Amino acid sequence: MSTPAPAHTSTVSGTAAAPGTTAPGSPDAGTPAPVLRSATYRRPPMSEAGLLDYLVRDDALVWARRGDGIVGFGEVARFTARGAARFEGARRWWDAVGRAAVVLDPLSLPGTGPAAFATIAFDDTSEWPSTLVIPRLIVGRRGDVSWLTVVSADPDDDLSVEAAEAELALLLEEGSFDHELGSGGTLQPGRISDAEHLDAVAAGLDAIRTGELTKLVLARDAVAELDEPVAVAQVLRELALRYSDCWTYSVRGLVGATPEMLVRVTGTTAQARVLAGTLDRATAPAGDAGYPDRVLAGDEKQRHEHRLAIDSLTRRLGPLVDAMTSPAEPFVLQLPNVWHLASDVEAQLTRHDDGRTPSALDLAEVLHPTAAVCGTPTEEAAALIRRLEGVDRGPYAGPVGWVDAAGNGEFGIALRGGVVEDPHHVRLYAGGGIVAGSDPAAELAETWAKMRPMREALGI
Q1: Known catalytic residue: 260?
Q2: Averaged confidence pLDDT in the chain
Q3: Catalytic position from the list 260, 410, 443, 446
Q4: For labelling alongside 103, which of 81, 301, 376, 454 has CA 20 to 30 A away?
Q5: Whole-model pTM above 0.85?
Q6: Phi, psi of 197 (to 5 degrees)
């Protein structure tokens, strides 16, 4: 899918790094960060639909939940990297951008001022380019406050509110509603067949039985072949409407609606939503309101899997915080396709000697990969995933979200989504946590249930 080049922009991209090296795109490796100017203007309140009204272009950058969030248009600068240093390179580049930027931001809210949308590959060895994109225009809403930010690398560019609103109006007018959501297509086997996934789960259970690890998360893929070109904007609207408790995202071909918040940073507060333990709603008996609490929350295997995920997060976050609240009992999160065991964790971040606290991008690196998408212990699980899955996960289960110049940001885990490979093909991913007592057939069925949001949004 091609992305139209926005007016009044320049692009700065780092080249790819070999695994285990510093990303050449980082400032330390010789690629300078752009010197940006930005201006943020408060706008009249949005309609009840909020940011849904702005999901009209297939090339938009999106992070939204219940009408709040940010939507980006165009591109001023971009950073890309691969390998073990992808987080470090991205962080250094973004820090340099923030230090050099000239910012007019009277609102000073999370997401105002210059911000970068990000997608980070799951694995150090992935060929997927981890990317930070700074949009030309950002429309945002946080509760009753709405805003528009314009960003430029051109020192002579007009950043007035009149010019920014005119540019936004033109982009929206050129929106992508020239094709409706398709209803024809098929879901084809991906690089991992059903039989191969069953074999991988069985091998994972053998590793758990021998004590090599306690939990392993194995994923598989499938390819949606569409009769009509994919209408990304319409897919995002469908996801946002159907899965209002999830965070709808779109960053350069990666689209979906994740129920899991890796980390949200607002000032000195960090929050996370941890999910582990799943029950397919399609198999639930009709009229049994207590079914999810009894079968999910009351199941020792599911609770054990969930506790491993909570312990993994709190252990990694612990050295960086002064205080942390972690619930003793999870709650059951109800989504249209599944129920999950969920826990919300909140922490107060420790200040460095220079007065700064860790940014959202800092914490995304610290927390990724979580036990919920990798396993326990993490290093052993990651190595076994590479061997048993045998494919590149790309951005699946990696961090996706945004960070602003003040370090605020939101990073979800890229779940319940897919990658638009071309106008007629979208690769979907789903996985499940395996612990002692897991059943391979049930794990395979769980992956199909987790693909249901994207299948429905694509109309297949």
Answers
A1: yes
A2: 90
A3: 260
A4: 81
A5: yes
A6: -65, -40
